[in-house]
Write a structure and sequence with these properties.
α1 (26-41) crosses α4 and α6 (140-150) runs parallel beside α8. This protein has 9 helices and 11 strands. The chain is α/β, with parallel strands linked by helices and 235 residues long. It is globular, with a radius of gyration of 17 Å.
Length: 235
């Protein structure tokens, strides 16, 4: 029996780029899709939110001079591109998926309707939530938290480049100390930057645990879904 029945997996846009600074690395996306497909095949219901950094990075310089709302809308559209790429990789593995967009674009994705999303999950489809919350000023972390709460996920699984939450950036400071678990308030008080403050506060207010783990270790998504002690639990 899996550790979790229903998870919301938060992937960064950068994870889709592989080793490149921007764009989509087809092999990396297929690798991620295989891991997520294995978790779904084990009976876990999976929702996914992908960021847009790998697409938006290419236009970020131009965005600095733009109106914030316009730039945020561009970022949301970037997440749709990633969601379609991830959906395609999963479908090629024989896994049924649905891309549900917070911004209506019926030719490309289903409009996001909460009850329909839950029904898809119950039928064993992987649901990829695109276009953030459809509102500017909200990050994809906040979108992931909102969707996780709406679909009643057991946990948000935040996949990163490091193997948990540290007191400082372990990629810059070799003496950084890892927390096996940490309270929401401590993450906020120490400004640890795991997810933005809005999403941490929403998780705290609704008692939704967050697992932060290393995406680059093969098999970690499965280990996390089984409830094995990997990464850091924020609760």
């Amino acid at each position: 029996m899996p550790g979790y029945q229903r998870i919301l997996l938060k992937l960064s846009g950068e994870s889709m780029a592989g080793g490149a600074s921007f764009g989509i690395d087809a092999e990396k996306v297929q690798e991620l899709a295989r891991e997520v497909a294995d978790v779904a095949a084990a009976g876990v219901q999976v929702g996914v939110v992908v960021g847009g950094g790998n697409i938006f990075r290419g236009v970020a310089a131009a965005a600095k001079k733009m109106d914030r709302v316009t730039a945020d809308h561009m970022g949301m559209l970037a997440t749709v591109i990633n969601s379609l790429a991830f959906s395609d990789a999963l479908e090629q593995l024989g896994i049924q998926t649905r891309v549900m967009s917070a911004i209506e674009m019926r030719q490309v994705a289903e409009p996001y309707i909460r009850r329909r999303a839950i029904r898809h999950l119950e039928k064993g489809r992987i649901v990829i939530f695109a276009a953030g919350t459809s509102n500017p000023y909200f990050s994809t972390d906040t979108a992931a938290t909102l969707r996780a709460l709406e679909i009643k996920a057991d946990v948000i699984a935040k996949a990163t480049r490091v193997d948990g939450v540290y007191d400082k950036d372990p990629l810059k400071f070799p003496d950084a100390v890892k927390y096996p678990e940490i309270a929401y308030l401590d993450v906020l008080a120490q400004a640890l930057g795991v997810m933005d403050a809005t999403s941490i506060a929403m998780c705290r207010d609704n008692q939704l645990p967050i697992i932060v783990f290393n995406l680059n270790t093969t098999g970690n998504i499965m280990r996390m879904s089984r409830g094995e002690p990997i990464g850091t639990v924020i609760h």
